[in-house]
Amino acid sequence: MKELVGKIAELYAAFEKDAKAQVENGNKAAGTRARKVSLEIEKAMKAFRKASLDAAR
User: Fold this and answer.
1) Would the pTM of this model clear 0.85, i.e. be above it?
2) Residue 51, pLDDT score
3) Of the N and C termini of the chain, which has fewer Cβ atoms inside 10 Å?
4) How far apart are CA 55 and CA 57, in angstroms?
């Protein structure tokens, strides 16, 4: 589960960087990258939820 948490942190850092670039600089390509990473974050969070529930049993 540590690896999964690390992956989520890395994905969020990438999302934050690209989202800031879009908001602050109007960088459309960064917005596209941020949206793509947001989908990856969603998948990773679902995997975390499943792993967390399995660990709690």
Assistant:
1) yes
2) 96
3) C
4) 5
